[in-house]
Amino acid sequence: MENMVKPTEDDRLIIGCWTEGKVLDRGTFGSITLWHNTKTQETIALKKCLRGVAEMTDKLQERWVQEVEILKKLDHPNVVKGLPVPEPLLVLASSLPFLAMEYCSGGNLRKVLQRPENSCGLHERDVRCVLSDVTAGLQYLHSNHIIHRDLKPENIVIKEVDGKAVYKIIDLGYAKEFDQSSLCNSFVGTLQYLAPELFEKKPYTRAVDLWSLGILAYEVITGQRPFSPTASPAQWIPLVHNKKSGDIRGDIAPNGERCYWKTLPSETCLTSVFKKDIEKWLQILLETQPEQRSRHCGLTVFEILEKLLAQPTVHVFCIGTMSVVSVAFNSEDPFMDSLSLALKDATDLAPADQLLLTESGRVADVKYIKDHYKRFQEAGEVMLYLIDTSDDGHKEEESLWLQQLHYCTTRLSDNRTYLKSIEIRREWAVAAYTVRQSVHTFQNVPRAFRSFQAHLSSEIPALQKALSSIHVDVNKLTAMMKVVHESYTTDVEFLQDWKRSKGVSSADTASLLKQWCACDDLLSDVYNQRKKVEYYFNKFNKLCTILEESQRTPYGQCTPLEILDDIMARMLQLYEKGKQKRDYASVSSTCMDMCGTIRELDQEQERVMKHVSPYMRSMLGVYHELGNLHHSIKKLSNRIVSISQDLSTKQRQRQQSIWNLLRSESTYVQPVVPSPRDQTLLPAVDCSTSWSSLCQQMDEQLKESRAQCNEADTVFELVDANIAKLEKECSELLKSMTTK
């Protein structure tokens, strides 16, 4: 009685602990229903046949049984797993077996592609995930000698695992087991995804899955199939058969001419590097000759894609051109040089004028890129920000996306596009895509603003330290100059006294005074250096004030531009509603509403740039001033060292001249010691008069120097007090900048 079938009020069945849920999918012959175990919380998808054996052909019965048998033996994370049918649910059994499968709650890929935000294909990060998972699952099937034969978005389901979407292949009803050398002849599958050899009913191999993979990949990337997606089979089948090797898309012009391209359309969410690589891969998959589809240059298509997906890529937002530049990263090459040249090609910005910053404002280097590129690549986000540091940097130019927005309004305003609803719907899709991409790109503006701001702020502490150091040095130099000057003045006075006492002429001491005067000539130079330090401090404080003001702006905060997001959401709603309309009046109304929304986006972006641009130019001026200040302080520091050395040299030279003078005087007054015979003949002479006089002068000079040293100590104390006050003011200013 435990497994008795009990209907609920809403006609859902309860069998034991299992409760019937919603119908996930329903086809001509079968349905997939959700079942939930209220005891174990397990959820499964149960596929059962809606028809009896008598109503189904032998082929259909074979397909049904075959899918059950194939799923039982497969086990891969990218292929939906077959499960044993819970025993209580066996009471629902019919003549054909049930198929229990793991439940994938994310729906199928077709529903994802139908979302308005994916009007021109998925975001690159999602494209990478889809291709990685689907090719892994398909490669597994082929390694188990199974051809799927019906690969399409409806047969790719999504399951969330650890917060990440995992894509899985389902519906193996058309799958066929094969030997390595076998060829198949049955014509099955969805027409739009079938390989050319199937149209001709030729024998085929697993290469048919590779063609379907190419069609699916193209649709995931662009939002539509590659060969005239809106045309009838009678039109696009010849289009496929007549394409040349390397063509990956084609369409029929209004005059009936067939047109082909070897590249993807511009309306995709792929970055330039990945786009070029994936185009080459699609050229292999979409070869009409099946033998050319599986390998290229010795590698299988699976190996080529694996290598392509593993290629590290760096995305750089260039605020000057409002564009994102992508560059393949190779840590073994001189990558920064390659990146700089690639940015020059994309922006016409000379390497010397490129400032490449991380999101935190740090100057980018190879180590940072190597350590962090994977996180940004998986998220599909910009990693670096390029600032134009040239003299005319941050000049306002019309961005590529702004040009695209203007083009969209022109197309939507053209009444001729209303003639075919299919064409206008594609115009709507492109318009929705353009608005979405424009908003996503523009959201990088405040991020670049904050990155540049953080970079400038990071330069302040080092500059503050350099200024404090130079302030100490110039005050020490001032004190030293004062001591030297006082010594010089005293020496000159004593020299004049000595000259008068000895009756020495001015001509005899002129050269000595001239030599001493050279030391005092540095006095004005020291004064000039002090004025420069004062000037640099004032300039530094002004630059800090400018930075502080920039942090008060909304763009200096970590808040998104919500108005732009709102405009984008309204545009996507217009597109979604427009797809359901058929009459001319509704189509015309949708076109006008879209044009109005695009103009609103244009005006809002213009308003933001009018606010951001002056601050960016102001911060660019700060950037140059900080660089000049660093250079000036270094130059001033060298000059102070040079003056100090000159002072020391000249002071030593003056002291040397004094000692030379003393030695000459000592020689001049050297007493002659008489012989005992002469002592009685010569009178006593006082020989110590001049020598004692000079010694007395030196004692007085020494006392004066000591007094001056004491005075210098007082000066140093004042210097230390001034430095402490200065550092406190700078610290408070920096603190106010970092907290805002």
From TrEMBL:
Compartments in which it is found: Cytoplasm; Nucleus
Superkingdom of origin: Eukaryota
EC number: 2.7.11.10
Keywords per UniProt: ATP-binding, Cytoplasm, Kinase, Nucleotide-binding, Nucleus, Phosphoprotein, Serine/threonine-protein kinase, Transferase
Keyword check for Transferase: yes
Molecular-function GO terms, alphabetical: ATP binding; IkappaB kinase activity
Catalytic activity as recorded in UniProt: L-seryl-[I-kappa-B protein] + ATP = O-phospho-L-seryl-[I-kappa-B protein] + ADP + H(+)
Transmembrane parts of this sequence: none
Positions of the Protein kinase domain: 18-314
InterPro entries named among the record's database cross-references: IKBKB_SDD (IPR041185), IKBKB_SDD_sf (IPR046375), IKK (IPR051180), Kinase-like_dom_sf (IPR011009), Prot_kinase_dom (IPR000719), Ser/Thr_kinase_AS (IPR008271)
Top enzyme class: transferase
Keyword Aminoacyl-tRNA synthetase: no
SUPFAM superfamilies, sorted: Protein kinase-like (PK-like) (SSF56112)
GO terms under cellular component: IkappaB kinase complex; nucleus
Main location: cytoplasm
Single Gene Ontology BP annotation: tumor necrosis factor-mediated signaling pathway
Protein name: IkappaB kinase
Lineage, top ranks: Eukaryota, Metazoa, Ecdysozoa, Arthropoda, Chelicerata
